């Protein structure tokens, strides 16, 4: 029985229901892929977590085609809305469909994503707990309108994400071209790693940059209260747009990075980079790389180090926790163009980075927009008309 207080919290025309009143579930047994030797195209093989599409298969039998559907991980309660035929990787996945013609599946999916459900123990949740969860739902026309609005934002997020992915792919191709063939060269000379343009040199990193390896202060000396010197521990302090973000401060700073230094992650994951924007203490997970006069601009050094990620990983040592040490890092050999060409390469790649950054910021704004819309629309705080 719903109390008077609970009734007051339910928007007019909405009803309190349980997930099992809205959705039927199906076990995935008939749709589980037989081989995990995935191919580059075919029927997508799905999981409900962040990976989503694990790969593709050419298996024709047992393809789920009653779309759209929700796939639900019974252990984590992660879910995905799927509107294309698919196969499943894990028996832990449940396939959910709307129960009755008065339910909009996309609306229920968004409602599920808005609900915080605690997980911890490694057990199956759907039948024992999740399907018994209470939710409030509007009439079907309002469900459809809410789903349409949230779906439109999702489409914009996906389009922006595709632009980011395409631009990142473009940049990888440009880096490969510019750091091996240069700009407009017709003459090349042979080296131990293949041909490089005439006028370029093969030099050690220590010849063109000062490398400062980090040293972590004792754990009791750093804080999250803004007291002392900014302290960067590692890759977790880098943003997607190659900047730094301060999470900790310390009153016992040791090794320092200066403004405009390139910070390089030297512990797993090795090779990630960011541009430092302030004087800060750096921990063992980082090195500060500072250009010498042989490098025209710090931006070129940043792009050069970014291009070396695979090579730095190959030089990292350790079985469970890989890292590259100072001597090995300083001995890394790079191809160095003349300073005027360094400038041009840096300008080209930085322009691409700016496009990626603009679209990343747009994506972040869209994600925040959807979060706000979900809070307003799925609670009934803001009503929509069909």
SSE blueprint and pairings:
Blueprint: H1 4-9, E1 15-18, H2 19-22, E2 23-26, E3 43-46, E4 53-57, E5 69-73, E6 79-82, E7 87-88, E8 93-98, H3 105-114, E9 134-137, H4 140-178, E10 188-191, E11 194-197, E12 201-204, H5 205-208, E13 209-213, E14 222-223, E15 229-232, E16 248-250, E17 256-257, E18 262-265, E19 273-275, E20 280-282, E21 286-291, H6 298-307, H7 309-315, H8 326-330, E22 333-336, H9 339-377
Parallel strand pairs: 3-7, 15-20
Antiparallel strand pairs: 1-9, 2-8, 3-4, 5-6, 5-8, 10-11, 12-22, 13-21, 14-16, 15-16, 17-20, 18-19, 18-21
What would you note in describing this structure?
The protein has 386 residues and is an alpha+beta fold. It folds into 3 domains: 15-137, Adenine-n6-DNA-methyltransferase TaqI, Chain A, domain 2 (Alpha-Beta Complex), CATH 3.90.220; 138-184 and 339-386, Helix Hairpins, CATH 1.10.287.1120; 201-336, DNA methylase specificity domains (Adenine-n6-DNA-methyltransferase TaqI, Chain A, domain 2). It is 32% helix and 22% strand. The protein is built from 9 helices and 22 strands. The strands form 7 sheets. It has a 5-stranded mixed beta sheet, with no helix packed on it. Strand 10 (188-191) and strand 11 (194-197) form a beta hairpin. Helix 4 runs antiparallel to helix 9. The longest helix is centred in the middle third of the chain and has 39 residues, at 140-178.
Would you kindly provide a brief summary of this structure?
With 386 residues, the chain is of the alpha+beta class. Helices cover 32% and strands 22% of the residues.
